[in-house]
Amino acid sequence: METSFKDRAFQLWEYKVSHGSLLIRSPKAPSVSENIDLVCVGVEYLAAPRHMKGLDLVEATPEEIKNFDNGRDGDGGDERRSHDV
Question: What's the whole-model pTM score?
Answer without folding.
Answer: 0.69
